[in-house]
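pinned: reference chain
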Amino acid sequence: MNKVPSGSAPKRGKVTLQKGLEHLAKVFLYMSLSEARRIDFNEADKEAKKLENLGPKKRAKAQRKIKGPYNRIMVGPETWPPEESQHKGAGEVTPHMRRGHFRNQPHGPRNELRKLVFIKPTLVRGDLTNVNSVSTKNYKVQ
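pinned: its structure tokens
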């Protein structure tokens, strides 16, 4: 049996937790923006309404069969360019969506201060694609 050096497992757990919390904070900040794109899926609410119409015995049986539908939110840009298989020349980039993200923007005298700003999603090299060829891609936040 391999021995784990003392202190390394808790340290890894702490780093993992910190990364998870940072990601969660970014999601909450994004969702609070007016530009955030979201689609609500209320599957658990729909299942609950179906169960209301059943009698007590059938309701209990149906509740046991349900594996756990839940309400969720799909987050992401409205459009996403298709994958292009052809090789581009040196220095050329394939059209793609660059995800929105948060960054600490320098400002103030000699850029010594920092403020958290959201960089909106953008289409990189949109001039190489036509508007109708861009498809959608959603992100699932659970």
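why pinned: The chain has a mean pLDDT of 77. The radius of gyration is 23 Å.
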